[in-house]
Amino acid sequence: MHRLPPYRLRRSARAKYLRLLIRPEGIEVVAPDGLPESTVLAFVRQHSGWAQAKLAELQARLAKLRQGQAERFPAEGGSVPLEGRETPLFIEETGGSRIRVSLEDRGLRLILPRACGAERDRYVRDALFGWMKRRLPGRVAECVQRHGPQHGLYPRQLRIKSMRTRWGSCGPANDVNLNWLLGLAPPSVLEYVVVHELCHIRHRNHSRDFWELVSAHLPDWRQERQWLKTHGGGLIQRFDPVFP
Ligand SMILES: [Zn+2]
Question: Is the pLDDT of residue 70 over 70?
Answer without folding.
Answer: no
